[in-house]
Amino acid sequence: MRSIWNGAISFGLVSIPIKLVNATESHSIHFRQIHLADGGRIRYRKVCELDEEEVSGGEIGKAYEDADGTMIPITDEDLAQLPLPTAKTIEIVAFVPADEIDPLQMDAAYYLSANGVPAAKPYTLLREALKRSNKVAVAKYALRGRERLGMLRVVDDVIAMHGLLWPDEIRAPEGVAPDGDVTVRDAELDLADALMDTLGEVDMDSLHDDYREAVEELIAAKASGEAVQPSESKESGGGKVIDLIAALESSVRAAKKSRGEEDEEGDVADVHPIKKTAAPRKSTPQKSTPQKSTPKSTGTKKSTASTAKKTTQKKTASKSTSSGSSSKGSSSAKKQTSSGTRGTTKKKTASPRKRASA
Which ranges of 3-161 would DSSP assign to H, the alpha helix? Predict the structure, then answer.
């Protein structure tokens, strides 16, 4: 990798020659501006406002524009004469825990490479000291004509440096938080925790830019003359959440489905528990009323008839017993029944009465 800056790390009285290398690169697709009428490329030319002539790069210098519009020329020689101790040095000023660095301050990232064989020993010493202390180094350095703030940490076996914004360059988040007092229920927090657990962790190396890939496919299709088919876009809610609980539960189910996990019972509460239990309550009285009344009336009739028969049999039995010839009466009654003559109840009961009177 090509270095963009050469200097040294100042670690107390120890000086470590290093090279500064970009740790990141942009994969964004860049477009050119063209004239829609004929496809000609649009270029920007640097033209002087006074004589309206195009100016080359060697004729362009720097100037500071004052409040009244006056231009104050500043040359490279003027800047070189300024006392800048970090012009070629990354000066470590402190070692602090990593969590004391606000991520909002993070800027560009660089790798620091040992410059030469003599730099290997002090470079390794600083790297191992950072590892054992579990701290990061805060340093000052100068790059592209200005002094900057940096943070040194260990990445694998390399010392990396993150450019930091100065504290006064971080804007206070005034007026950004939601207006008014918003209360969040415990049930909503529980569902949010469940969603976080379901989403779980991710392998950062597996993440990629889907939009860039789609743009590359579009360019390849148009370059080969193929027809471009519009892709189906997913509908978004537009930031409007009607039911927060339902949205969280649906998110948990969708996250489990995307990971191929089955939704176990009891993991997520039902979204509409009231609607499911309300329907049978309304229909139960209507169905149970006719069923309960029918067996009651039938049972009453049957019980009354059986009671009447038992009473008649008891009365008949008592009368036949008092006559002293119950056995003869019962045998004659059996004979009359088996003879096949069907008479009324009065005729069947008459013979015992006549025998009793005789």
Answer: 76-80, 120-133
